[in-house]
Task: structure prediction
Amino acid sequence: MVEFAGLDQISIHRIGGSGVDLRKITMQPHPAGAGTRIGLPARLLRDKGVYEFVEAARELRLRGRNATFLLIGDPDLTNPTSITRVEIDAWLAEGVVEWLPHTSDIAAVLATLHIIVLPSYREGFPKTLIDAAAAGRASVTSDVPGCRDAIVDGVTGLLCPVKESTALADVIDRLIIDRDLCVRMGAAARVHAENNFDIDEVTRRHIEIYEERMLRVI
Result:
């Protein structure tokens, strides 16, 4: 309960995002094989860190890492920061990333990945990281509000400085090199999702808050 001068008492409640259906997004075994599959599921905007993701992919290719980098989602041409199709086509021709347009079955896509990356410049409470936790996948994300709130740094994922592609490559590389760490963080992420992001609990909490406020009005 918080009081401000000249205003009635205000109740502030913090809920971890919009939640996720843990029955639809489940933890599946990591893909087999030596290669590491790394995805950025998001609208393809500059502010989501797409350029930094592509540069990190280039850097890790130069280091000789056996990894595949996927952009997962569509451009949003109504947004002035949107990535263009020309840019995507150039990256595909270069072979630095692969592209999977928007899909309604994100659970199936997440199951094909080892690591989820969201190097966003800013977020509210990113659904990408909530879904990644539900899928039992380690995340790499920017050390900015919203992103840092959706993971437990060093436990369910790793933070990196925002807008720094080399630092992003270094953090991703840590999980590429240490597959056991990647798997452990993914398992911890699923537990974190069960404890904090279950859509049933999030919905119950919302209703509880609304009912509490209604009783005060009455």
Remarks:
- The helical segments are 50-62, 85-94, 106-110, 127-134, 147-150, 165-177, 179-196, 199-217.
- The beta strands are 36-41, 67-72, 98-100, 115-118, 138-142, 157-160.
- The CA atoms of residues 192 and 217 lie 35 Å apart.
- The radius of gyration is 19 Å.
